[in-house]
Structure to design on (82 residues):
């Protein structure tokens, strides 16, 4: 099922405003669960955060693709005016 451009834009904004902070908190909780007594080495912790940072983007990539472009209907109207 293909989403309309405007729906994808609104959904991507919702993911960025609500979903990303929740994901960040879950990533922090995961790191604290992996090392309950002491923080892991800084490079290990950095690798975990970078890996999780890339992991959240994979399922959302199709949603974010093309969102920064003008609305396709607006583009067609601009071509007709020329």
């Amino acid at each position: 099922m293909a989403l309309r451009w405007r729906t994808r834009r609104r959904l991507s904004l919702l993911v960025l405003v609500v979903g990303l902070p929740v994901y960040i908190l879950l990533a922090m909780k995961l790191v604290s669960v992996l090392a309950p007594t002491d923080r892991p080495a800084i490079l290990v912790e950095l690798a975990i955060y970078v890996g999780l940072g890339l992991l959240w983007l994979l399922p959302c990539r199709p949603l974010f693709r093309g969102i920064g472009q003008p609305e396709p209907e607006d583009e067609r109207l601009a071509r007709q005016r020329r």
